[in-house]
Amino acid sequence: MCDIFDAAPKGDMASMEHPIFSVSTKPDLSKREYAHGDAILRVTPSANGLATVHDRDVLIYCISQIMAALNKGQQVSQVVRFKAYDLLVATNRGTDGRGYEQLKAAFKRLQGTQIETNIITGGESQWDVFSLIDRARIVREGFDGRMLDVEVRLSDWVFNAIRAKEVLTLNRRYFRLRKPLERRLYEIARKHCGWPGKPVKYGLDTIQKKCGSQSTAKEFKRLLKTIVEQDELHGHFPDYTLRLDEAGELVTFTPRAAKTALPQASLFPMISENALQKARVIAPGYDVYALKADYLTFWDEKGRQELKNADAAFLGWCKKRNERNPIRR
Questions:
Q1: pLDDT per residue over 132-157, tens digit each?
Q2: Residue 96 burial (CB < 10 Å; 0-12/13-18/19+)?
């Protein structure tokens, strides 16, 4: 059960180093082959297209939850269950109907994308065809059709990486990066620079290869230059700066002087399990998890005001909801 709301975002190192996910903003139906050193990778899309960098949010959320549970000494499983709303908020996604539909589409692409590789995770080399997730299913849906509980079975390849702790912590601002290419560049910087780390340099062709971009070299250079210019103006790129040399052929990633992160509380209020138990008494007959999802939607729409006591605010809202519309049993 994924219920650790302050879990630090984590990604598996193998897919941070190699271009497993598409950076295209349109459905990507192209097959790809990638070789770097001894690593060989073949990725084949389903009719829904390749899994995208944004679809990776599902894996990041699951990995983060499992690692947090392991660090607490808890038993973990390859099958994880979570509240869809929690994932959407934790990964800075929309919580309207479109957000839920996009999540369903992500499940389809993650399950449908087929991977062949000799890249080792958890000390095990696995040369066969597999998907990033074996299956995903909606356990419960709300009265309005929104998914509430979701169950995902991670592939052996991903779970091996988790068990071997071949993961890296990501800055929460990663989820504020909207361009797929920006996210992919951050993953490369995080994997190869480390933290604290030293600057690393790559030729433009190597970076394009690692990003898995299907753009022409000229277009990729233009896209990268735009990201660099925006970072020079706003410093929006988390943890690292990225710069091009004068010829525009060499990319340098440099760790920033101070590592900046958004606390989880700034993304959504952390409502405790104890508060959910109290909500059952305050609002008898209600599904407390549905109440929580509705409350977080309310909080989001009201401008995400800072809460001194998230549990108290939630329980006060539950009390008002029950007073206005009690469930008769």
A1: 999 999 888 776 667 788 999 999 98
A2: middle
